[in-house]
Amino acid sequence: MSSITSGERLILASEHKEKANIESVDATSFHWNDEFDQWRARLQGKWNAAYECIDRHVDEGRGDRVAMIYVNDDIHEEITYRQLKNETDRFAVVIKAKGIKRGERVFTLLPKTPNAYITVLAIIKAGAVAGPLFEAFQEDAIFERMYNCDAKMIITDAQLKSRVPSNKLPALEHVLIDGEGADKEAGEYHLQEELESVSKESAAQVTEWVDENEGMIIHYTSGSTGQPKGVLHSHRAIVQQKKTGEWVLDLKENDVYWCTSHPGWVTGSSYGIFAPFLNGATSLINTGRFDANEWYSYIERFNVTVWYSAPTAFRMLKAAGGQELIERYNLSSLRHVLSVGEPLNPEIVKWGYEQLNVRIHDTWWMTETGAQLIVNLPNQTIKAGSMGRPLPGITVAILDESGNQLPRGLVGQLAVRKGWPSMMREIWKNEEKYRSYFPYDGEWYVSGDLAYQDEEGFVFFQSRNDDMINSSGERIGPFEVESALITHDAVIEAAVVGKADELRGEIVKGFVVLHPDYEESPALLEEIRLHVRGKLAAHAAPREIEVLKELPKTRISGKIMRRLLKEQA
Ligand code: WT7
């Protein structure tokens, strides 16, 4: 592999181990409408994402391919596309038999096991809208989402069911329990028993053909303020999910793909369910929390080739140990590694390159966008610190507060021109919120992120709109300061916020988690401060640094909760 450093920036030329899928495509002349038209011509009005994910492979002779490898301690199970078809067919029959109609919402609350995937796909096959919940959600979060959605049914298990407040959910008609522990007197059903009663004939006819714009899946996303919003995606999203699986994930026939996210959040559905299955890939499904040794051992044991994870996970792997840890495992199967969810620090790209011997490809998108929009393609150069460039067919702009396009190099609102297939269909029961994403004549989708684009089109994330710091009139993006903080050996993780200050408006305040080999002292903190000052600028160096045992993070996505830290500051 070749790398150069331009100024402080690490630049990694592409040197993939196999020819990348995208190389055969003329990306400059690509239009999503043409792609869409091909799907429309092929499907002739008979859309169903679950059919495209599963049954199509069986119908076209790929039924014996392994769809899922499930690993959980000593359990190791393989499920083929044919088995996946049979399972989702039967499940879909049960869902329909309980009276669930097209477009009605069915939720799932399950740990990351094959049934978390099978249930979501079965709901979609039956024409209903799937509402997958993350397994760590507690009662209030579950209530809010199911109530807002008028959920009619939930599939959960004996361990998690106590968090579902059935008596407070008037629309809820059915509770199905996966595995043992259904309380039949309370009206719960035992899922496996229901499945046994399904006839072959009914299963053969079960796929509900829908229109491309009908609801498929709903994910709730919490903005920095207010109630979580229900982001509804429709079946047409698969057009883009399939293509980005091919181009960005670079999925090929014999790949073993591992997406570390849970299907209860959008990375775990768009790129944990749809993209890999649409492309006929084999997915590794792991249960349980993060553990560095276990994670490395999965890569070795299952020969993972394509790996999609998040900066938090990479930072934790880095903190868990250097070469001596990594050398215990054979990670040579890894061909393509990707990241999403929060800014990917240049230091982590460097670590990946030097220690794991891979380029980590950052990708940018949102729950609302349904699929990747800004990406690092496998056959293109990576600039560490940039999220990459717009996907073929996608137009990005940096707008000022009046919606005018800013020249290259200036920081402003990151916006995307409307018209990509996987764009959300609606915000559930909140038309006004939906419209608020299109403040300027409806042409631009405004993301709420601040960024700039360089001359070559690379997009550099600065912060969420609300997180930008203004100190003595200077705008300081927390991400850049955080990235500088973690280049100091003592710092494992960092979060930077603005702290109110009479003189300067705000000052930069840093929260850090120290490496266990280092002990907190005023001298160390001053050293870290000067380290950042030397890397960035005096005004960007944190005036205050506070040491925390860990950073507060959202349970779902592992995003640093800067708002909480800001209150604390
Ligand atoms: C927000 C969306 C959709 C996948 C996961 C997040 C931040 C996402 C990146 C990235 C910097 C990123 C943005 C975005 N974000 N990817 N590569 N670099 N920031 O989904 O929960 O809807 O959050 O996550 O702020 O707006 P989400």
From TrEMBL:
Q: Which SUPFAM superfamilies match?
A: Acetyl-CoA synthetase-like (SSF56801)
- GO MF terms, alphabetically ordered: acetate-CoA ligase activity
Carries keyword Acetylation?
A: yes
Keywords from the UniProt entry: Acetylation, ATP-binding, Ligase, Nucleotide-binding
Q: Entry's InterPro entries? A: AMP-bd_C, AMP-bd_C_sf, AMP-binding_CS, AMP-dep_synth/lig_dom, ANL_N_sf
Domain AMP-binding enzyme C-terminal intervals: 480-555
Q: Provide the protein name.
A: acetate--CoA ligase
The protein's organism comes out as: Geomicrobium sediminis
